[in-house]
Amino acid sequence: MLEVCKSGLIALTISTLTATIASAEPVKVKVFIGSMFEIGDNTGDRAGEFQHWFSKYWMDTEPQEVLGAFRPVHCSDAGICGSVLGMGKVNSSASMQAILLNPNYDFSEAYYVLAGVAGTPPSRGTIGDVVWGTWLVDYDLGHRWAPEEGEPGAPVFIPRSGYEAYRLFELNPSLVAWGVALSDDVEMRDSQAAQEYRQRYPDAAAQAAPSIKTGTHMTGDTFFHGPGLSNEAQYMAELYGADDYLITEMEAAAIALVIDRQHGTDRIVSLRGAVNFDQGNPNETTLQHLDPAPGETAGGFAETVENITLVGAPLVDRIVADWEHWKDGVPAQDSQ
């Protein structure tokens, strides 16, 4: 008789727990921040892309495991959620899809901040810059051939027909404008090492202090380096009618496609900080740039990952603080 009672009690407990879980309201996500990697722990050691965001929004939160995601999701009581999605198109987009489809989260009105480090051409940017993406271009979708197999000096890329709907995304200009305006007075971090490294490049943009810019983010699984491929990236941006190429990164266009198929792209921002140049200086070859000697790296990584959060957080905070103005779409700037 006792065993029967025990079995009944266990069954009732399980039934009650299942009903409680099923009836729990999903987390209403107001802003989702996606980074691509963290170096070690989320706090207390050398910071990667996620740590400064974690320290600002999720220090007192519990990790929430999501089947299919690269790392757990963290959510604040204010509706700010975030996760490390993994590097590269496949890693990051698979994580984003798993999180979006998880019934524990309601993304129906969410905004997205896709934030990480990147490279920049020395003709347009410098170490420590943070760039709000105006366009996302997929670098890999098309046809390429060896330069010696084409016309001398001609481009070695043409778009592949059929990829028009997902090789190019224009991000919401109104949302980008909000991000730029709210970060206008951010004091950018810099380092002595980065300042010295910049002087190796003759370009005025490369030698300048870090600043906030806007431009095209070029998404490619290939870590392309050298002036030839940098020029090709700019050629692609012009070919597609996008803004100048300022950032080379590995995830944003793929993540945007996943979000687009569920909720559109009007609430996405792509925010990248430049930690390297996409080519060597005039006194080094591309291979030397790819494999620098000890002590010859760019410097400024720690400052750049901090800059990214400093630049992006004002937009996150404004969206959440004025949620009634934002939940139905990006408001006009003169309405607040």
TrEMBL record:
Coiled coil residues, start to end: none
Pfam family, one: NUP
SUPFAM superfamilies xrefs: Purine and uridine phosphorylases
Protein name, per record: Purine nucleoside permease
Organism name: Sedimentitalea todarodis
Lineage summary: Bacteria, Pseudomonadati, Pseudomonadota, Alphaproteobacteria, Rhodobacterales
